[in-house]
Fold these 2 entries.
Entry 1:
Amino acid sequence: MPYIIDGKAISKQIKDELRDEVEKLTEAGINACLAVIQVGNDPASTVYVNNKKKACAYVGINSRSYELPEDTSEQTLLDLVQKLNEDPEVNGILVQLPLPKQIDEDKVIRTISPDKDVDGFHPVSVGRLWIGEKGFLSCTPAGVIQLLKRSGIEIEGKECVIIGRSNIVGKPMAALLLRENATVTVAHSKTKDLKSIAKRADILIVAIGKAKFITKDYIKEGAVVIDVGMHRDEQNHLCGDVDCEDVSSVVSAITPVPGGVGPMTIAMLMNNCVETIRGREERA
Ligand code: GUN
């Protein structure tokens, strides 16, 4: 049986560490506040936003909620973001995606001040990541690195294959693995002979967006598999991009869905929120 990488436990460990850190900062009179904006009431977004607010309460970070109607104009949202950029009480701004079609997501992301970009989506944050400068890291890929490190899985020198090239997961994942001295391949929907490329991986990271797509034919014996997908199968059960039953005889370690990568995204968001106030006690 493979080792099951427990994202829920690791995420709790991180949140507990952050809670201790925040407690000390609070005693020194330093507080963090995350502004969370949701436009419309997509049920999945509501669940994510509520989980983020719950995590803030757990860690000891203040959160402010902005719930805007589905028909909100782009300008109204941009004005709100600008107001929060200028608000000294707000340390982090999160605009839950996706946004309704009348709003240009890129424009909104670019309007968030890079100093408050706790999602790590602003082009300045992305640039900092690629050149190895300090900045906010995209939460899901940063969570994957923590899962590996805290499970004692070495990254340096490993062949890592990422399937998926999104701005939120695949691309920042490649940058972070490079930073850890891995050899990185990014495969995607146009990749030829995906099976043989995936089979090179010591660590395979799957963010392809297709339920149970990865079977054991894609996996080298003993590989570590990180499943970033989240879907519902025919029985309405949650499942990932990896057919975990099929691959369990070949992998050495795997993240479950749910309870793998998912909880890590929020833990790393909390880390980014704490990052906005870190070190302030020395300066106070
Ligand atoms: N929608 C799905 N995932 C995310 C995320 O990590 N951040 C934001 N802002 N929206 C999302």
Note: The two ends are 52 Å apart (CA to CA).
Entry 2:
Amino acid sequence: MRHFLSIKDFTKNELLEMIELAQKIKIQTKKREFVPYLEHQTLGMIFEKSSTRTRVSFETGIYQLGGVGLFLSSNDIQLGRGEPMKDTARVISRMVDMVMIRTFEQSKIDEFAKYSKVPVINGLTDSYHPVQIMTDYLTMLECGITNPVVAYVGDGNNIAHSWLMLSAKLGFELRVATPKGYECDDEVVSTALEFAKESGANITFSHDPKEAVKGADVVTTDTWVSMGQEDEKEVRLKAFNGYIVDNNLMALAQDGAIFLHCLPAYRGYEVSEEVFEAHADEIFLEAENRLHAQKGIMVWLDNHRDEDIDE
Ligand code: CP
Ligand code: NVA
């Protein structure tokens, strides 16, 4: 049995298999052919943080695959009142067929997975957002970009870490520009650079958004204040001064470059209104693709269940 906790746990081929499944199921869905790949399966969806896209896409996705989603807000289940993650895992995974969790520390989802009898999917932690980055890759392919130079401008956060792992595994060029003090995590960087040696990915870091964006095919960013960092807002907004993706910055990218944003977007901070609206087609295709990419991931995980796991 495999869990989907981080891109780093998969080979390039495995990641591409998931993307191919997503593409196939997307075509079927567009033709209103709802193939019940996960018939009668239940997806438990545990949320310790807010969500629009992750909740709607997983719930709709599992339904369209023939199953049902259970929305479990930590405010409403005993987890929120202190029931341990490992007990929650041992209970829920005896009843449902797959679990998606959005939580804080990566160690919490790792612990859930350790005690789970069913595949666990990371729907965002403080460290990673792997389903988002698979979606971004699918979106780039649909925009006709196959071997991109990607520029990530902004916070060295869960989204940046997931870009690092994807680039390192698939072998495309990634340039990360963060303000001083907001760089990516050292351990994540060194793991990614190890994988990059194998894949040949050229990954570079700077404190210069212009240098990162010059000639890039894909420019991307994320909020400067992630969920759980609300108290740091004032300090962060000052530190990120100069990191807005605006028309001046986009002008340095390749002609026809796309702009991606995982959303929600804060206009006037990490992205200007003009850039956002000029690239709305790509951004909302990316949002829709959460539905399709995650179906590919769920079906792939279902195909890789260890058959003798049930005692
Ligand atoms: N991009 C993303 O994960 O959005 P939500 O927080 O709305 O789920
Ligand atoms: N970095 C953001 C992503 C939101 C989808 C956060 O963690 O809040």
Note: The longest helix spans residues 280-303.
